[in-house]
């Protein structure tokens, strides 16, 4: 496989990581709804424990969290094969893109500034990919 083909495969792994991270962010937000109602009157440590218990017992939060963390495992595996200077910008920018798209599909609104940002992301990622080849 030539270097362009190898980079294409690496780019697809980074895209998969971004999809796992970005695709779960809106679900984590929805799953965490109600945590502000958890109140422990005594101290900050008890408050923390109560909030963690709320999240760990809430499958609507826990399932996206586990999927999100599988993206982290895949990212670390991919880092063994991909240049860090390419992996981080591509993955982080595409994560934002997937978060926005999935959030929109779940009913969140997208404003003009967000659309301009998505366009900038696509241009930037394309330049990263083309610069690597």
Care to describe what's here?
This protein has 133 residues and is mainly α. The protein has five helices and no strands. The radius of gyration is 18 Å and the shape is elongated. The mean pLDDT is 88.
Helix amount: over 70%
Extract low-pLDDT stretches. none
- How many β-strands, per DSSP? 0
- Share in β-strands: under 5%
Shape: elongated
The residue-averaged pLDDT reads: 88
Query: Biggest sheet: strands, sense, closure?
Result: none
Order of helices and strands: HHHHH
Radius of gyration (CA) equals: 18 Å
- Strand-pairing-aware structural class: mainly alpha
DSSP summary: helix tally? 5
Amino- and carboxy-terminal Cα gap: 13 Å
Topology:
Blueprint: H1 3-31, H2 44-56, H3 59-79, H4 84-105, H5 112-132
Helix pairs in contact: 1-3, 1-4, 4-5
Characterize this entry briefly:
This protein has 133 residues and is mainly alpha-helical. The protein is built from five helices and no strands.
Please supply descriptive tags for the structure shown above.
single chain, about 130 residues, mainly alpha, elongated
